[in-house]
Design goal:
Chain A: GO terms for molecular function: DNA-binding transcription factor activity. The complex is a heterodimer of chains A (about 190) and B (about 250). Chain A is an all-alpha fold and about 190 residues long. Chain A has 9 helices and no strands. In chain A, helix 4 crosses helix 5. Helices cover about 75% and strands about 0% of the residues of chain B. The chains are: A mainly alpha (about 190), B mainly alpha (about 250). At the A-B interface, helix 2, helix 3, helix 5, helix 6 and helix 8 of A face helix 1, helix 3, helix 4 and helix 9 of B.
Chain lengths: ~190, ~250
Amino acid sequence: MSEKKTHEDQKYIDGLLKNNSFIIQAIYDKFVPKVVNYIKQNSGSRDQAQDVVQDTLVTIYNQASEKGLKLTCPFDAYFFLLCKRKWLNVLKKTSNKEVTINEEVLSKGDEAQELAFETSVFGEKQALFAEMFEKLGNACQDLLKATFKIKSMEEVAASLNVTYAYARKKKSLCIGKLTELVRESPKFNQFNN
Amino acid sequence: MEKENYIQFEEYLAGSLNQVELEVFENKLKTDSAFAEAFQTYKNLSHYLSDKFGNETESEAFKENLKSISSKYFIQKDEAVSREKTSKNSFKFYKYAIAACVIVMFGVFTFGEFSNPSYGDFNNYDTISLTVRGENDDLLKTAENAFNSKDFASAEKAFAQLIQIDPSNAELNLYSAISNIELSDYDKADELLTEIANENSAYKNKAIWYLALSKLKQEDVLACIDILKTIPEDAEDYERAQKLLNKLD
């Protein structure tokens, strides 16, 4: 992926990551109207469109923050495909009947498809990780929060009133427990290949 | 996986395995697919947790900002849509509209409140004070005096020299940008202001406000509106920005 050329629209990704209000406003002014239209034409409301757009931007932000997302296609196509995918998932969850989708406005381009797919899988994984984290016992949750917030294991050990060696061992066992929860979940096998 | 495996994963990621252990570990990654897959998930989870809890403050700030821009955007659109609907649907509304127009006209002639706003309505700066005991006092004094007496050409000359000495000083850059707006050197002004606006300093919101005013002076009303919308509620110039927005819209 690093071999591919970064698109000039990377400025939107960087702007989101820097929490730059100009860029966020520009994304709403330039790219959001198309998404709202699409969702309204496909049995959605404006409020639902607002949620889909917001969730999508948070997923992009998270991927940029955690994985250093590099945009290799126009932001327009990428963003639209992502919102569309997210909306289809909402429809699938809320209705059991067959979903008919107006395909006319679909943006073409393999690069955008590929990247949007990657980001939505990232988002789904994150949601699964968050869900499984909640299933951990309180002791593990607190230890992991402290570990990744404070960063120094010595300080973590002191703040939890345990020894350094114990805190370190406990950290790996807690992430281990989380690893098991994730690997055992049926959802995990859907996107793990 | 055994507990020992997870302890080993952590040691590998922390780089605390010795040479022999490292070779055994990497060999196992190549040959044992269940081991490799568990390790990959463990590593992904570590990255996830590290980003989630390590950057919690930044991420929360982003979400807050996003929420406020999003609701502003959707509320404005809603208002536009409902305005359109009422004017289309109700015939009676005409009467009220005419009455409103009369009142507005009255307002325009009486108070001049609704006249097109211009840059001149806003460029009443407070006097600035730059000198602190230290180096470059003379130059700072020159800049300060020139700016306060509205001799922007001399002020800009002094600011340019000061910025050469202290390029990252947001305050100096801001005043230099204002001088450039006054001198109608918009490219330079806008570039300086955008830079300050994109960084985190005490002058961030001031820079956004002046960038909007620069666009107003250039008669680029659309750009001015777009920029005004990004001024956050806690900014000193928020009220003024909202007033200007109402007049421009």
